[in-house]
């Protein structure tokens, strides 16, 4: 099972899970450097000591493994493009306290906890739903990644309105699709049909044939099977009278990190995938103020559970 708060990573946990645990411990003891020794002692509670002549104990393996975990933490500095909120000692980290980078710090903590909480039980704090916030955050990140003349909208649950009207609004904004199509002339029962965010890069002529992305946004750690269901071509065939001239690309946003050995390649085949670090890399300089406020409201409640 993946590591979830308040549990400990299991003996077979991936390096990325143990790195997240190290970060969480640094949040619990904010202002203190958390060393490899601190983490070793915490994780050793999960293991039974093995003492056999000539056989390496699990605790020895743990000590060796934590050197790789610490390197993973150091790598995150570059992966986040200077948005990483932790500071380093020789073999320790602590949560940074600088107010100059407080927005990026809080967003990173939000993404971390949205990964390591059970989001069925802990998605709402202070009347703020973290999963809906994630859609809004990803819409802004997608627009920033697409660059100049890009636009994005939230299409999923975070956006109010019935499905047909949301399709009509989408067609109006992207300038493609012609009109809403109802395959069976029944009232649609869909809310978003698997599409949470739409992003596109416009040309000055505003004609058809532009780069469009249809995105899913997933918190937690059980996203692998779900993202394979993202099929922009099926969505267009089902609900648009005329498919876009250039097929929309599938994009997935996750709060998780991706395990470099197990699924960094396999889970990206056929997708443009943003994990936690890529989201941090493409945070726009000027995030929507209301979004930041609500992330901080959610985080305020979430941190009380962690502590």
Description:
By secondary structure, the protein is of the alpha+beta class. Helices cover 41% and strands 13% of the residues. The protein has helices spanning 15-28, 36-44, 58-79, 102-116, 130-146, 163-174, 224-227, 232-239, 276-281, 289-306; strands spanning 34-35, 86-88, 92-95, 124-125, 128-129, 150-154, 197-201, 211-218, 249-254, 272-274. The protein has a five-stranded mixed beta sheet. Strand 2 (86-88) and strand 3 (92-95) form a beta hairpin. Helix 1 crosses helix 3 (58-79) and helix 4 packs across helix 10 (289-306).
Q: How far is it from the N-terminal to the C-terminal residue, by CA?
A: 23 Å
- Strand proportion, as a percent range, falls in 5-15%
User: Which word captures the global form?
Assistant: elongated
Task: Report the sheet with the most strands, covering strand number, pairing sense and barrel closure.
Answer: 5 strands, mixed
């Amino acid at each position: 099972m993946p590591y979830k708060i308040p549990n400990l990573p299991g003996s077979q946990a991936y390096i990325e899970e143990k790195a997240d645990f190290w970060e969480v411990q640094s949040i619990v003891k904010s202002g203190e450097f958390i060393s490899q020794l601190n983490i070793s002692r915490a994780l050793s509670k999960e293991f039974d000591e093995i003492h056999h002549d000539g056989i390496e104990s699990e605790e020895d393996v743990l000590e060796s493994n934590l050197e790789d975990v610490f390197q993973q933490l150091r790598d995150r500095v570059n992966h986040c493009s200077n948005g990483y909120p932790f500071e380093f000692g020789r073999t320790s980290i602590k949560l940074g306290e600088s107010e100059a980078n407080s927005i990026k710090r809080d967003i990173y903590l939000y993404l971390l906890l949205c990964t390591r909480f059970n989001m069925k039980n802990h998605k709402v704090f202070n009347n703020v739903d973290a999963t809906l916030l994630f859609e809004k955050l990803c819409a802004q990140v997608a627009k920033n990644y697409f660059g100049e003349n890009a636009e994005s909208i939230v299409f999923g649950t975070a956006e109010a309105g019935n499905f047909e009207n949301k399709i009509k609004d989408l067609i109006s904004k992207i300038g493609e699709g012609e009109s809403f199509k109802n395959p069976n002339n029944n009232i649609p029962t869909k809310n978003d049909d698997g599409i949470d965010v739409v992003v596109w890069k416009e040309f000055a002529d505003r004609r058809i044939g532009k780069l469009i992305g249809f995105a899913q946004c997933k918190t937690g750690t059980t996203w692998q099977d779900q993202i394979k269901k993202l099929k922009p071509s099926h969505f267009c065939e089902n609900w648009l009278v005329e498919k876009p001239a250039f097929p929309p690309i599938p994009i997935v946003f996750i709060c998780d990190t991706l395990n470099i050995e197990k699924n960094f390649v396999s889970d990206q085949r056929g997708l443009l995938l943003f994990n936690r670090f890529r989201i941090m890399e493409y945070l726009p300089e000027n995030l929507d103020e209301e979004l930041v406020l609500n992330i901080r409201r959610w985080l305020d409640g979430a941190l009380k559970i962690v502590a």
